[in-house]
Design a protein that fits this description.
354 residues; 5 helices; 7-stranded antiparallel beta sheet; alpha+beta; single chain; 17 strands
Length: 354
């Protein structure tokens, strides 16, 4: 499968995990998760090593899970602590445990080699804890499409004019050039639309009477976390790019989690420097849901079309710079995980001349 394993993915919001066993799937790996008595979220392979029944079909006993078939019981670290009818436990009687971290109401899980899990690599933004910024967790958008299609859509400002004409875009941006930067670890694409009518979103939340300067900055953190920094400010204020906080500014965060090759979950939330309070957050959610439903329709149609026989290759155009680089980097990351570099050979039996 074409997944990056050595990465932190979002399993869900903190509110999603409690005492009950919860079954889910990430990068093709089935998991069972629960919150232990000390408040920590645990994640185990959802498959008993005996007859392979999913542990999520069993029951929780304290901080352990008892298999629903023959009662083998496993603790939060995956160790077998009981085999009914015998005193000894075979060495192979365990299930894999996955590192889990919880930050800002988000539950992250590491799907790769456990010893390589570094909590310092978990995505963060300073605005999570800065005064004047308000965070709101949205929902989980289930998309029948490959995660690469979903993620590259989130580093593509050009589609906004055509897919979201009543919410996040309008015709004023159709021919505005898109700037792309692929030199750093984060792939970025952005553009400003100067002296134009406010889009539907900022007609509602910006309170603008006249024309605005508005921006879209798309930042894609590999393998699949996207930050969309967008906002508006009155044109007459002539706002420099680096002073966007003077305007109405929103960060839309998309934590794209691959489930299977044709199934992705996008956990989305936002940070805003305007309109405090849950009423405004709920109103923003309603508009976001309209826009994201438009994305879902497009992406699922693309997935369906990709599955059909093709007599010629799809074309690529100028706006595809960011997505093209993204796809190559993902291929390189997967290749590095599936091969082992033994380093420079000692006393090699070949001589290289180029």
């Amino acid at each position: 499968m074409s997944f990056v394993r050595n990465a932190w993915y979002v399993a869900g919001w903190s509110r999603d995990f409690g005492d009950a066993l919860r079954a889910l799937e990430i990068t093709g790996q089935r998991l069972v998760m629960f919150r232990s008595s000390d408040g920590q979220v645990k994640a185990l392979e959802d498959r008993c090593p005996h007859r392979l029944l999913p542990l999520s079909k069993g029951k929780r006993i304290g901080d352990t899970i008892q298999c629903g078939y023959h009662g083998m019981t496993f603790d939060g670290a995956g160790r077998c602590v009981r085999v009914p009818g015998q005193d000894n436990t075979p060495k192979s009687a365990y299930v894999e445990a996955f590192p889990v971290e919880e930050r800002h109401g988000v539950v992250w899980i590491w799907m790769g080699e456990p010893e390589r899990a570094d909590p310092g690599e978990i995505f963060d933004l300073p605005e999570f804890t800065q005064d004047g910024w308000h965070a709101h967790h949205g929902e989980a958008l289930h998309i029948r499409s490959n995660y690469l299609n979903v993620a590259e859509n989130l580093v593509d400002p050009a589609h906004v004019s055509f897919v979201h004409p009543t919410t996040l875009g309008n015709a004023a941006s159709e021919n505005v050039p898109v700037h792309v930067s692929t030199s750093g670890e984060v792939i970025s694409a952005w553009r400003w639309i100067r002296d134009a009518p406010p889009i539907g979103f900022f007609q509602k939340f910006g309170g603008f009477d006249g024309h605005v300067d508005r921006w879209h900055y798309y930042h894609l953190h590999l393998p699949s976390t996207a930050v969309i920094d967008f906002g508006s400010i009155a044109t007459e204020l002539n706002c420099p790019e680096e002073e966007r906080d003077r305007g109405v500014r929103i960060f839309a965060l998309h934590f794209v989690t691959p489930v299977r090759e044709d199934y992705t979950i996008d956990h989305w939330m936002h940070l805003r420097n305007t309109e405090p309070g849950e009423e405004a957050a709920a109103q923003m959610d309603a508009m976001f849901k309209v826009a994201f439903a438009e994305d879902k329709e497009i992406l699922e149609a693309v997935q369906d079309s990709e599955a059909q026989p093709q007599r010629r290759k799809p074309i690529r155009i100028a706006i595809d710079k960011g997505p093209n680089v993204y796809r190559k980097r993902i291929r390189d990351m997967i290749a590095s995980e599936t091969t082992e570099d033994l380093g420079e050979p000692v006393s090699p039996s070949f001589i290289q001349h180029d």
